[in-house]
């Protein structure tokens, strides 16, 4: 094929961590197997209009049944790490109470399969599949959900902690809170700003409580504990004071609202003020902020895009209908992926340098990748040159950040294979491996071959 030759990436060390990532609901299918109960995504997928094409994760990539072959596929890509998530409704079907041994057994086998092939398991405890019973009780806006999450984390660690050293508590709490409870684009599809902000606090609290339980359970065992956030670089569109304020406000809602409490143990004052202006206060109790600021070994960064921010609406006004300052996203004017997201690799360099400066944690890129309209060739290969370019540009952006002093230790491609892309269903393909949903056949795309070659070249230099 005409795929570009892979070269070693300058600026990345030979022991840089390379991986591929997935999540439970997006690939597993088998939603009724072995005692699993419905999650909020099983329910949400049945709401008319919620998911494109009315699709759902009932079958997805059938990974639950094809796991050993999929692990062989991962091994073939030459990565050293596989990031996956545990389905809470498999492990603790009622969201509380004892562990479900049959559900745990799947992850037990997955971990053993990975270790047998020398692949490090990197476990995410929560990638959005909340047991429906917990949502019925109030979901993340309810404080009790944080306590339930900590209990679930302890059960998972008790079963897998003897072999799994890398644990991520939450994937992208911004998405869980904002898309799940404010815009309603994601499960559970609620639309209430105050609830969404309470969800933020209880997600962070759940992270802190779970961290404490994992540290206690680990004792002297090595444990690498972290959280993964979806982050972008927020720059002002122009140099007006309104644009600077808009970028700061976007950064406050998207970045500092999470990282300030996690790292510094306090919510940012300016964000609390803007919440107060909308009639919302965080439900903070004594001791919460100390709990949330539990030590982190690594910060997981999911990066897809960045945009600019303007403080002026299209009609020239600087306040919205509620009298609050305008914060309007503005495009860079770059090419976009099939998601409509602009391709802004230098935003990743800027982001990593900023994270280093303000938060000082080691980072790993736990997700980066793109959906494009893949067109399989007659010979069955998938010449996804646009995805190769996307990955190449972003890996080099990571290397540049490292050369300039950011302590970034790894990069995981999103995603191992095409999968259930949430509200977009199966139409959007992020995989470096193609999945034919009629036959469940996997085909390594040219990007997958290129990624394997790039890893080999960079390691071997
Ligand atoms: C991740 O979320 C998820 O963890 C993963 O499950 C999912 O499959 C993957 O990404 C792909 O969607 O307005 O142009 O600046 C992604 C979270 C938040 C990333 C919104 C893109 C907006 C892009 N997304 N963001 S833009």
TrEMBL record:
Matches recorded under PROSITE patterns: GLYCOSYL_HYDROL_F1_1, GLYCOSYL_HYDROL_F1_2
Catalytic residues (positions): 172, 367
Enzyme class label: hydrolase
SUPFAM superfamilies: (Trans)glycosidases
Gene Ontology biological process terms in this record: cellulose catabolic process
Keywords: Carbohydrate metabolism, Cellulose degradation, Glycosidase, Hydrolase, Polysaccharide degradation
InterPro entries named in the record: GH, GH_1_N_CS, Glyco_hydro_1, Glyco_hydro_1_AS, Glyco_hydro_1_beta-glucosidase
Residues noted as binding substrate in the record, renumbered to the chain: 26, 127, 171, 304, 414, 421-422
EC annotation from Swiss-Prot or TrEMBL: 3.2.1.21
GO molecular-function term, one example from the UniProt record: beta-glucosidase activity
Pfam family, one: Glyco_hydro_1
Reactions mediated catalytically: Hydrolysis of terminal, non-reducing beta-D-glucosyl residues with release of beta-D-glucose
Annotated GO CC locations: cytosol
Family per similarity comment: Belongs to the glycosyl hydrolase 1 family.
Protein name in the entry: Beta-glucosidase
